[in-house]
Every structure is written in C-alpha cells, then in structure tokens.
Amino acid sequence: MEAMEWKKPLRDYAEAMGCCCEEQAAMEKYTTFRAGGPAELMIHVQNREQAAAVLKKAKELNAPLRILGRGSNLLVSDHGVKAAVLHLEPSKTPFTLENNCVTAWAGENLSALCLFALEQVKSGLEFAYGIPGSIGGAVYMNAGAYGGEICQVCTQVEVMDFH
Predict the structure, then answer these.
(1) What is the pLDDT of residues 59-92, one digit of tens each?
(2) 19, 28 Cβ separation under 8 angstroms
(3) What mean pLDDT do residues 117-122 have?
(4) What are phi and psi of 126, to 5 degrees?
(5) Cβ-count burial of 139 within 10 angstroms (0-12 exposed, 13-18 middle, 19+ buried)?
(6) Are the C-beta atoms of 74 and 32 separated by less than 8 Å?
(7) Residue 108 · residue 91 · CB < 8 Å
(8) What is the CA radius of gyration of the chain?
(9) CB 96 within 8 A of CB 54
(10) What is the mean pLDDT of the chain?
(11) What is the DSSP-derived secondary structure letter of residue 134?
(12) Cα separations in angstroms, 42 against 45, 98, 142, 143, 148
C-alpha cells in the first residue's frame, strides 16, 4: 500500500489519541548505534491504551508497521524504514508495586526497573542492571547476564497481537 493511503489517517488518529508523531523521523536518533535513515512515520506511545489503539488502526488501514523500544541491538538501513514505527516510550507512571510484584510497561528502561526493584523489593534483578534496552525487548529476547535471565523473574506478560 502506498504511504499516502495510510500515513495521514494513521497520523491523524494517533495524534487524536494523544501521541506525538513525526514524518521522516531520523532513526539514528532512536538507535544505540546512531545509524539509520528515516522512518516514514514515527508514532510515540506512552502506554498500552495508546499502543493498542494505534495498532488496531494500523491494521484497519493495512499500514506497514514496526515496533521500536530503546533501539539497542538494532541496525537500520540508511535507506530508512518504509513503514510506520510505533515507538514505545517510557510512561509518566513507569512502575507499580503490589504484593512484592512490579508491573511495568514494555517501553520502560530495563535499568530503571532494576533500580526501582532494588529500592522496593530489594532483590531479584541485579543481573539485568547493565543490559541496555527496554523491558519489552528484554522479555521478548529473554535478556540475561551474570547467570540470570528475565524468565527467572517474570511471572506474567500481556501481549498485543497486531497481525
């Protein structure tokens, strides 16, 4: 599908949902390697409600879509991304704690989660502190270091299917 057919309606919808959008967003600003050409449309979401709504609209419009967290371990072509990029950003209320369990949004920084857990729970995520990236990426790849893995501390995951 031509970008003209999906870009404007998707951007208008995302902005109405409170998302910030950029056309021809330089991917080098969003990757740890600081490389990559522009994304046709970058949509910044800060919570699951925004993400779910934009994913649903992108599917309705048959828009090509990619998901981006913190951009670690990501190489983007200098030709850019011929799609909308859903950028999972940190939220205004990153973590909640209930019964010694922390709930976090996929776009949060993994190291920030580790610090929160250290302050509130005291133990469990020390192995992950130096791992770059977002919580969503860490869960997806089962990130690990120093003998620990995310699967050892993660008890529940909410998944959004956009296919």
Answers:
(1) 999 999 999 999 998 999 999 999 999 999 998 8
(2) no
(3) 91
(4) -55, -35
(5) middle
(6) yes
(7) yes
(8) 17
(9) no
(10) 94
(11) B
(12) 10, 34, 26, 26, 34
If phi > 0 it is left, if psi is from -120 to 50 it is alpha, else beta; for residue 109 that is beta
Q: Tokens for 7? A: 């870009």
Place of tokens 């919570």: 47
Query: Could you tell me which residue, 94 or 95, shows the higher pLDDT?
Result: 95
What is the predicted pLDDT for the residue at 122? 85
Angle at 107 between CA 115 and CA 87, to 5 degrees: 150
Query: Which amino acid, one-letter code, is at 86?
Result: L
Tokens of 122: 């005291």
* Predicted structure pTM score: 0.90
pLDDT band at 57, cuts 50/70/90? very high
- How long is the chain? 163
The secondary element (H helix, E strand) that includes residue 59 is helix 48-60
Q: So what's the pLDDT on residue 1?
A: 56
Cα 79–chain centre separation = 22
Is 84 within 8 Å of 41 (Cβ atoms)?
yes
